[in-house]
Amino acid sequence: MDTTRTLGRSGIEVSAVGFGCWAIGGEWQDPGGQPLGWGTVDDQESVRAIRRALDLGVTFFDTADVYGTGHSEEVLGRALGRRRDEVVVATKWGNLFDPDTRTLTGGDDSPEHLRRALTASLRRLGTEYIDLYQLHLADADMGRAARLRDACEDLVTQGLIRSYAWSTDDPERAAVFAKGPHCTAVQHALNVLADAPEMLRLCEEAGLASVNRSPLAMGLLTGKHAGRGTLPEGDIRSRPPAWLRGFGAGSGADPEWLARVEALRDVLTSEGRTLAQGALAWLWARSPRTVPIPGFRSVAQAEENAGALEKGALTGEQMTEVERVLAPG
Ligand SMILES: NC(=O)c1ccc[n+]([C@@H]2O[C@H](COP(=O)([O-])OP(=O)(O)OC[C@H]3O[C@@H](n4cnc5c(N)ncnc54)[C@H](OP(=O)(O)O)[C@@H]3O)[C@@H](O)[C@H]2O)c1
Hints:
Number of domains: 1
CATH superfamily: NADP-dependent oxidoreductase domain
Number of helices: 10
Number of strands: 14
Distance between the termini: 33 Å
Oligomer: single chain
CATH topology: TIM Barrel
Strand content: 15-25%
Helix content: 25-40%
CATH architecture: Alpha-Beta Barrel
Structural class: alpha/beta
Order of helices and strands: EEEHEHEEEHEHEHEHEEEHHEHH
Strand order of the largest sheet: 3-4-5-8-9-10-11-14
Bound molecules: NADP nicotinamide-adenine-dinucleotide phosphate
Radius of gyration: 19 Å
């Protein structure tokens, strides 16, 4: 398999796996105390993991201003250092937050906020431009989003961003952004347990990359969340909000999801792959437009996820076997 992919119609080349930087932001919460991070993290280990990924050929990193209320962008910027121009940096805007209390405080879909947020992200990341700038408000009003799309075109003209996208699971919303010439992707949930055929159809028709969040089903597809109560307080999966699928409140992983992971184990671990590598291999086989962005929190995870590149995509036969295993009944 070619270990690189192109971001939609932009011509921007990225490694076929990107690294998702949500978890490395550390703990943060909503105003009601609901955890929105993945528990505590060791920044030194995050920096080592990013540098190891760079050495293994990873050239795409996805973060957001709100992850750890700015901390994820700072850690990524520090880890990249002088190698920043070797990579493609994606970040997101739209949320409001208070770094002092590490709390999400709301959202703002105005063009004025877009400019303010971009200035702050550039500072935290220590860079002069963002390669892929993404609207983080998944359900924003479509009319207001069209204004943001046009404002993003201005930012491209000014050289502050190279391309932009909407992070949303709604193909109708993604299509609004796709009308802009420099919209190059949609970021959406996709993994072997949760397919998104309509969004992939849009990507095909509009020439967008499909940047895949939750490619490991938030860790379920690594096979390690078999036990109950293994998740520490402060980890969003220990008290999952309504939109988070696959984890039950206080109980760890949902048994029905775990059963499906177990049923897929043989085919996903074919040809010496680990389960996580098999989950990424499914995504590459699903469409030539996909770019999975698995999260990570250690050098070991970075090595395993980057190591998926050399094992490549599942074969047609293996994809058929996945379909057979997941078929209802
Ligand atoms: N609205 C949005 O725009 C949005 C929403 C969600 C995610 N995202 C982006 O997508 C990225 C990835 O999605 P995600 O964070 O939802 O989940 P994911 O990639 O499906 O799962 C990542 C988690 O799985 C575990 N893991 C990763 N590699 C592993 C390995 N090799 N072995 C064992 N465990 C491993 C780690 O957590 P543990 O070690 O704690 O289990 C890691 O944090 C995020 O980082 C973020 O950049 C964007």
